[in-house]
Design a protein that fits this description.
The protein contains 20 helices and 3 strands. The protein has a 3-stranded antiparallel sheet with strand order 1-3-2. Strand 2 and strand 3 form a beta hairpin. The longest helix is centred in the first third of the chain and has 21 residues. It starts with 10 loop residues before the first helix and ends with a helix.
């Protein structure tokens, strides 16, 4: 039990304690509280005891640790279970929403905006349970003033989980975010288009292509109406729809959309923009799939050069382009040139995305295919086993990618 009564805590310590009580029972980074010291100080008006002299965040944390309210480890702290119960029990019901609002503002301001950027994932991994908890409490409270903030955090959390390949966990918050923005802004708002597009991408990744298409088309129509037909947001929608149609084996419909997206981005953003690299990669994949390998290769190489210049040599986008180029080189009988590329792509993806990311499974499968094609079947089997484990965990046993890897492994195992 805490040794120091709440009433005797300094205002900053009490405010910090009350905010933390509405976050998840998981380690909390100190940095958001330091960055939003203004918010913690404003919360002093909610604390009954205002007589004592105010303190800094660091001094307040020391005070709470000495009073057995929190445990500290490095740059994080954890509210002790008995402390959480004690704080929540003494908060008046009419003040509960105020503390939930303060906690939501703190977490929201600390969440990195680019949730799909692997460089932000260390911060996201720590803050995600707190974002999930405060969104749950905000929705339960029914506070209309928190709806916009909640929709934003739910959408960002879903995008982070999608980027990590955790599609099962990503879908519920994404759907909740979509429902919130539709109720807040109406069905034709640009924020609705963002959620529709992200949900469509999730459905595509989980092999629900028919369900994804109407959402993607609706998002594209909203963007065209909001921004105009030549806007980069429209180019992104065209690129996504083109990829979806390609995945549905409709290359004749996909290709003009991909070419239009490329033309729009080059005109609006310039020939060296990363979005142009994305468009080049998409078109190159379609050209490769339809047997136009000589046309595809220069596009792949240009996409790789653009992404290396924009993101660096060790970025996941660079790894994806390396893997695609390696596959084309294998198709054209240049396995010797392909092998160092696919090995580098695998290494980058493992380092930046983690060892169980779907992209890692894709590179493992590519490397296994190369090894099989060059007579090294025994080396391919462990790679395929690992790829299969990742795919089953991320996509499920019946996903087309999972089945493809399983079939490849069965062929390898059956090879004398």
């Amino acid at each position: 039990m805490p040794r120091t009564p709440i009433a005797s805590l300094t205002p900053t310590a009490a405010a910090l304690l009350h905010v933390a009580a509405y976050l998840a029972p998981a380690p909390l980074p100190v940095s958001p509280f330091q960055a939003r010291e203004d918010l913690v100080r404003r919360c002093r008006s909610l604390v009954p005891n205002k007589r004592q002299k105010d303190r800094s965040i660091e001094s307040a944390l020391i005070e709470l640790e000495n009073g057995s309210w929190i445990a500290r480890e490095g740059e994080t702290f954890t509210l002790l279970p008995k402390a959480r119960e004690a704080v929540q029990a003494q908060i008046p019901p009419d003040r509960r929403r105020d503390w939930i609002s303060a906690a939501a503002s703190l977490v929201s301001s600390a969440l990195p905006f680019d949730a799909d950027d692997a460089d932000t994932w260390p911060v996201w991994s720590v803050l995600l349970p707190h974002a999930e908890r405060i969104c749950e409490l905000a929705e339960e409270s029914g506070a209309a003033s928190l709806s916009t903030l909640t929709a934003q955090m739910l959408g960002q959390s879903a995008l982070y989980l999608m980027s990590r390949g955790d599609f099962v966990r990503a879908e519920p918050p994404l759907r909740r975010s979509l429902a919130l923005v539709e109720s807040l802004f109406g069905p034709e708002h640009a924020e609705v288009a963002i959620r529709l597009n992200n949900l469509a991408l999730l459905l595509k990744a989980t092999d629900r292509l028919a369900d994804a298409e109407p959402l993607m088309r609706r998002a594209l129509a909203l963007d065209e109406a909001t921004f105009g037909a030549d806007h980069p947001n429209v180019a992104t929608g065209l690129a996504n729809l083109g990829q979806l149609l390609h995945a549905q084996d409709r290359p004749g419909e996909a290709e003009p959309l991909m070419r239009k997206a490329l033309a729009l981005d080059e005109a609006a953003l310039g020939a060296d923009h990363p979005a142009v690299g994305r468009d080049l990669n998409n078109l190159a994949q379609l050209l490769r799939a339809t047997g136009r390998l000589a046309e595809a290769e220069p596009l792949m190489r240009r996409s790789l050069a653009l992404h290396e210049a924009a993101f660096g040599a060790d970025h996941p986008h660079t790894a994806r382009d390396l893997g695609n180029l390696a596959s084309l080189l294998m198709d054209t009988g240049r396995s010797g040139a392909a092998e160092p590329l696919v090995r580098r792509a695998l290494e980058i993806s493992e380092t930046t995305l983690g060892p169980d990311h779907p992209n890692v499974a894709w590179h493992l499968n590519n490397l296994a295919s190369l090894l099989r094609g060059t007579g090294r079947t025994a080396e391919a089997a462990p790679l395929l086993r690992r790829a299969l484990e990742i795919c089953e965990g991320r996509f499920g046993a019946e996903h087309p990618t999972t089945r493809m890897v399983r079939e490849s492994l069965a062929e390898v195992v059956a090879t004398p």
